[in-house]
Amino acid sequence: MRSAKLSLVLRQLRDHGPRSRARLATELGLTRSAASALVAELADLGLVRAAGVERGGMGRPGTSVELDGAAVCGIGAEINVNHVAAIALDLAGNAVSEQRLAIDAHRLAVDEVLDRLVELVRLAEAEVVARGGLVVGVTVGVAGLLDRPRELLTVGPNLGWRDVPVGSEVRARLGAAYPVSIENEGNLAAIAEAVPGDPNRQDVLVIFGEVGVGGGIVAGGRLLRGHQGYAGEFGHMIVEPGGRRCGCGRIGCWETVSGLRALLDAAADPDDPVRDPALSLDDRLAELNRRADLGDTRTIAALDRVGNWIGIGAAMLTNALNPSAIVLSGYFAEIGQHLRPSIEEHLLAGVLAPQAGGTRVEFSTLGFTAAVRGGAAVALETVFDDPTVVAPPHPDVLVGGAR
């Protein structure tokens, strides 16, 4: 019962920002003395701190409290075709460590990819520990169909992986005392975009584009996984029968016309440097933006074509689900200013409801960190579920800027 009440207070501060003890008591149906005692216990755990004076309302101004947890971190990691990455976030969502390595995962052995991922996780963990912090968990996102109960990547079309026990392989390499979990990277990107407490981000579709296209469905602030956990594989909707063969083996999947490969094929010849996988993805996209800004007709035509296909697929999803927003993440967000007109035109034309049923098109501000940020958020849920899992900080450990 005590941990449940601590969780309630901690989530209220996460979802709604700094609050006085009196305001917390009112909002959560607690007595003021109970709210004060819970805040004091969370402060002893290093999870909240004073945040200034809250003014307004009746009575004397109260001292507000906010999330601290600078010494408590979750790590999110990701395996994708073009990179492996890891990030450590503290309880307030601040990045303590960011690691990213460009690779061509399709050409590497599975063991080598996993080794490189674990190296990045260890680097992130080392930075947390060097700051006197505690890692409470790691969540790894992977591109492909994931059997979550067995933590088995059943099919990773663009990775070229089948039946890879990612969970046990990562866990064996890390040998860590903290929990390690595995999730689809599109689902993690969706979790990162569903901002707690923001009413405009509680019913959204997140579409994540890189070599493949995937994403997640958030309804009422909760991720929808589907009957067996395979929801969100948007990239494999058939939109062009008789079109190109997809990495999954089928013909005409949405990602064959809207994924990064489709854009690069349309925008540049095979020997163009922008097609070179040795060049970082950020640099390749920056070059495409530069060419479009300069009015290069081939680049603009390629962006329009991909934008058209994104809009067509987005309209199909909107007719089925009517989200408040479609959030485009991954590479889509990096070139979003050039894609938006085509996407919105085809969304409006393809949705039966007037004005696309009120569905907005938004672009993620998280870039290629959406999946790892979502992973870190999932890892931190263990603290929000039960704050008592965090041992009281040692007096010599720096927490919230004071010893």
UniProtKB/TrEMBL annotation:
Protein name according to UniProt: ROK family protein
Record-linked Pfam families: MarR_2, ROK
Every HTH marR-type domain range: 8-51
Organism: Nocardioides hankookensis
Family from the record: Belongs to the ROK (NagC/XylR) family.
Entry-linked SUPFAM superfamilies: Actin-like ATPase domain, Winged helix' DNA-binding domain
